[in-house]
Amino acid sequence: VQKWTTVHGDAHWANLTYPSCWILDWEGWGIGPQGLDAAFLYCFSLLVPEVAVQVFDCFSDQLTTADGIRSQLFVCSELLRMIDLHGDHPELGTCLRDLGTSLKSSILVARQK
Fold first, then answer.
1. pLDDT bucket at 112, cuts 50 / 70 / 90
2. Which of 59, 26, 32, 64 is nearest to 44 (CA)?
3. What is the pTM (predicted TM-score) of this model?
4. Cβ neighbours of residue 55 under 8 Å, at least 6 residues apart?
């Protein structure tokens, strides 16, 4: 990890309020790689592609860095672990596996250059 920062650690739509934006549920906050919260929100958006694109575009400065890619891979693995262990968010499984495979492939291609 190149850049550590303060993170919420569980950024998803149920932890955000609207119309005034408040971030709820801070029991998991701490230090993490830059892009971790953006990666959580992005991964939790994958079932609605239009929203996922908006989230990715909004946070592309974080998600496209090496730390952002690592964060996305971590979030994919963490959410897949939660599916396997607790049955949480099973509807995300296929999207998370696809994203993880895509990220892994892009890392392998980048290493070959």
1. low
2. 59
3. 0.90
4. 38, 41, 42, 45
N-term to C-term CA, the chain: 21
Residue found by looking up tokens 């990666």 in the block: 39
Nearest to 43 by CA among 110, 105, 87, 103: 103
For the segment 52-82, what is each residue's pLDDT rounded down to a tens digit? 999 999 999 999 999 999 999 999 999 999 9
* pLDDT value at 19 more than 80: yes
Packed helices 49-58 and 36-44: angle between N→C axes, nearest 10 degrees:
170
According to DSSP, residue 76 is labeled H
Nearest Cα residue to 71 out of 63, 79, 81, 60? 63
Q: What is the dihedral of CA 53, 59, 64, 67, to 10 degrees?
A: -130
| Helices and strands (DSSP H and E) totals, the chain | 5, 2
CA distance readout (Å), 63 to 18, 24, 59, 83: 24, 22, 6, 23
